[in-house]
């Protein structure tokens, strides 16, 4: 649960802006999407390895991205 301390003199727009920033930093939306369906640990590991290989190939210049 995100809590925003708003002062009496603070505008509601500023409080909303603070809330949105905290929401993005907490990555709540990503957690919700990942929890919608179960992925096996082996599948997670495989995708992480494939991403790392792709990034390494981009860095070395083998793939033009």
TrEMBL record:
Q: Name one GO molecular function term.
A: structural constituent of ribosome
Reading the lineage from the top rank, the first entry is Bacteria
User: Could you tell me the keywords of this UniProt record?
Assistant: Ribonucleoprotein, Ribosomal protein
Query: What's a GO cellular component annotated to this UniProt protein?
Result: ribosome
Stored Pfam families: Ribosomal_S21
Question: Which InterPro entries does the annotation name?
Answer: Ribosomal_bS21, Ribosomal_bS21_sf
Q: Name one GO biological process term.
A: translation
Q: Which NCBIfam families match?
A: S21p (TIGR00030)
Check the record and name the HAMAP family matching this protein. Ribosomal_bS21 (MF_00358)
Please state which protein family the record places this protein in. Belongs to the bacterial ribosomal protein bS21 family.
The protein's name: Small ribosomal subunit protein bS21
Q: Taxonomic classification, please?
A: Bacteria, Pseudomonadati, Bacteroidota, Chitinophagia, Chitinophagales
